[in-house]
Amino acid sequence: METFRDILCRQVDTLQSYFDACVEAMKVMGHQGVQDLEGDDIDDVDDYDTPRTHTAESKSLSEKTELECSQSQKEKDLAAVFQQHGAHAVDFKGEAFTFKATTAGIIATLSHCIELMSQREDAWRKRLEKEIDRRKRLEDAYKSARADSRKPPIVVGGPDYEEGPHCIINEDEFFDAVDASLDKLEKEEEKKRNASMLHSETPPKTSLCPSHRLYSEVNHVLNEHIKYASNGYYSEDPWTLIHEEGEMKVYKREIEQEGMVVDPIKSVHTVKGVTGHEICHYFWNVDVRMDWDTTLESSQVTEWPSSDTVISYQVHKRVWPTTQRDALFWSHLRHVPPEDDEKPDYWIVCNFSTDPPNSPPSKLVRIRLNVAMICETKIDPPAEGKKISRENITCKITYASNVNPGGWAPPAVLRAVYKREYPRFLKRFTQYVIDSTKDKPILF
């Protein structure tokens, strides 16, 4: 830019000096013309009327001589002026080309500068937009953190954030915590399917003795469940359908005892490819219980009253913020043959809470339960000359659960958990039985 400026200044000075010389020359020539006119006045009347004398002629000759001398001197001055400025006469064509080239260069340079400035402006604008977005995100994060800081912190294990009537967690937060914990337990269970179970002793080969303290209770509970299954669990109102998926239907009745939800749950399901004996066997068998029950932390057999009856103590995994729970119950497996051809052939398993003598008190919340798994096998006649295969077998399952979870928890939360977990349990357990028996002989 400085170079272009110097060139333009030099060109302007050159042109200005030329024009000054021209003006000076015009002034000199103009002054001479005026004097010529003044000296040669053709309108002077005296030149014609006044007689010429000797004196007048002398005077005229003297003036003419002076005029010629003055004119000669002016011509010399004009020649000197032109000689002085003619040495550096301007080449107008060259100067014009130079001027155009200079101005074109200036314009191109200015355009390039403007383009660079525009690019820089765009870059700065983008940086500004990024900074604005970053600042907005920081402000939102700050507002969120400030809002969270105003909430009282949830301390896991704190007395105000544990299960109980004075728990300050609302029902939505309580359910979210239970739901997240159940999902976490289920994922952990998928990673360790082959957990072992402790056994205190081996089962005897005899059935339950009539003199045993559990004999009357076992028979009474089984007869009640068989009676309800034969008459239809859902013939009385009010049973409410809470879930339906394919062949599975889950019902409930809303009942509360001392503020605790103890809703009875009844389910019906139909599974192909397995028998009722196989379903009940895997539901009762303590050796495989932890393979399909993902809520268990441990399971231990405390007593074998008979070959078909076992007393189990099991601890359930803790689901925060609820308190950890355990259960002590007897489990009985029985085959109920039909009295005639029109009545169904049942296999049944009952789990019922019990309190054996001299049993130590529990430090956990004890679950009270009355659960029955009742199965009926239906066989479609195979084609003539073929054996019965699993494709010909259908099992109708009736599952009844009456559970008092103990402790305290919001009723809405418990009902929401029941609605989600019971169908999930039935699907998971029946699929486990199908996978376990598909390559084995049929157990009728």
Explain what the structure shows.
- The chain has nine helices and 13 strands.
- The protein has helices at residues 2-39, 46-49, 54-86, 92-150, 171-191, 215-231, 276-284, 289-292, 411-437, and strands at residues 198-199, 240-245, 248-252, 256-257, 260-261, 265-272, 296-306, 309-316, 325-336, 346-353, 365-366, 368-379, 393-404.
- Strand 7 and strand 8 form a beta hairpin.
- The protein is rod-shaped and about 180 Å long.
Unreliable residue stretches = 40-55, 193-200
Average the pLDDT over all residues and give the rounded result.
78
Shape: rod-shaped
- Biggest pleated-sheet summary: 11 strands, mixed
Order of helices and strands: HHHHHEHEEEEEHHEEEEEEEH
Question: What Rg do the Cα atoms give?
Answer: 58 Å
Please state the structural category: alpha+beta
